[in-house]
Predict the structure.
Amino acid sequence: MLKRIIKEQKVAILAVVIILLSFISSGIFAYYNHNNQSVDYNRDQLLSEANVLYYEGKYEASINKYRKLLSYENSKVARKNLAAVYESLGKYKDAAKEYEQLLKDENSSQLRLDLAMAYYNLDQLDNSERELKILKDSELEEDYILRDVNYYLSLIANKRSNYEQAEEYIRLALADNNFALGYYQLGEVKYNQGVYKEAIDYYLKALKIDGSLKGVNRKIALAYLELDQSKSAIVYLKRANKENKEDRVIANKLAELKLSHPDYFEDKELTLPEERKREIPDSVTFEEVEAIKDPGRELRIGILDNEAEVYFRVGSDFKVKEEDKVILEAKKSDLLKAVFEEGRYYLEIGEKKIEFSNAVQVIPNNYAPVLVHNIIYGRGYYWGGIEDRQYRGSLELIPRKQGITVVNLVHMEEYLMGVIPSEMSPSWPIESLKVQAVAARSYTLANLNKHSDDGYDLCSDVHCAAYRGIGREYPRSNQAVLDTAGEVMSYNGKPINAVYSANSGGHTENSEDVWKFKVGYLRGVSTEIKDSKFPLSPADLKEWLRDTPTSYSNNLEFTKASHYRWQRSLSIEYLESSLGIKNIKEVLPTQRGESGSVRSLLVIGENEEKEFTYNLRSKFGGLRSNRFWIQPQYENGRLSSFLFYGSGWGHSVGMDQVAVAAMADMGSKYKDILNHFYTDIKIEDRY
């Protein structure tokens, strides 16, 4: 009996085992059957296609690619990028779901911060605060994450009217003392506390870091009004009104104050530099200059255009020639006047008056400066001025229909001595000044015909290169010019247009990604110590712009931290006023370059949309560069602003001047630096 029971139990156990094995085998088959489908997709290809679609501004197509990959496998990379794209579209509910899923598999501080920010924009403040406090209690290696944790905790506390807590958090965020939005937030906290004087101080600190921040002048004005300081308030009310003409609160305040304090609106009369009185000194002191052994080819640099009268002197005895004929001889320091009267041209010295009809040259008998009085700079701008300038070489006065054009005939190396200190600080490493000298020499030769219709090669302002003559020269920059005399970068046998900008933010751009045309030697290159691999995925691009990667472009001896990485918040009200689009719903990059720079932006309003492709920086509030990440910001369920995370200052094509200085400071030689920034060039000696 016992044996039969045992036998039956064995049979039952065997049956159960068989059934279990059956389930297991069917499960294994399903698993392998599912995996067998992996042959039908290529993970890397799908990710690459999704990234390309994102850079092309095809967001829904990009999302579909990431989701397709996720249907095949639980790809963290695809999910992270999917969440980032959702963020850029303002779809924070979808982004939060992806971040929640990612955090189940990986305890990442970046992902948790992203989740907290998504919750904040969904107005889920408790959830956001919970995630932020988890981060705050952990050991964070990335400074920007700790900064943003405290920043968002401050925003939450401020919303809840817990101003002391809000102040405590934002002061911790300001361990990054270049955080302009942080100082603005501290100003907001102080304003809400009714401490208006301190609020103004912090608003002004924000503007000192980033003078193009929008909305700050408005808050300063309102704070001054709370302090009953109407005169100071008017200054900032006017600035706020200039920023946003549609702001009725500001317009109404100005109107009220104009009635109550009309005397405060009696502005000092401003005059443009060309409208100001010009005085001629009785005597001058000439700079002492020495001739250069091999000064290079002669250039024609336009100094003044279409002037009714021109006053000049020479630092030695000199002659004036019309064609090959000497029409006047004069002594050192004699004052001459060239004048255009009733369609005729004259030279005046004392009581003597000589008419001329062709170009005349003013030639020193010895190597000495020529001085031109009353050079106007900043023409058309109130900040402009008038000054006397001394130049090497000689002068040519050209009679034109509208007046007299003045040209400085100066040799290449002499010209560069007056240019380099205006383009790069003469206190920077000598190798960087050599880089600038070769770049400027190459640029000059490549652009010689820029003003041929005006009677000269190049002008003397920033349209070509800022050239202020001998008064701008410095010994170190002069030495850099002489040490590289005649050296020019060429590509396919021609001098290159060696463009450069102040700070590339860690990576320069391909020319076609900024200016629409491809130039072989203007290829994007890294200035990071450890190169990031561009083009970056959406998620990596966002983190790269929020973080502060170690780079030659971020050497604080030669730049400000806020020139390398910056943040900007543009309110819906500001954008609607400046762009002329009502009820803005989205601001979306529709095309990015390989290194992340935005080539075009689509702004979608309630009843219209516009795509912007030119002058993006100026049209969107004076952005420091075209490389940025945009995140829509919501307050109480309403789209309130767009947050820009950006890198660099300038167009980022060609040479990065800050990186050049840092590389030179670390021991790099000028030719190696030039070959890094300009692709496949040759450095030739043209003398």
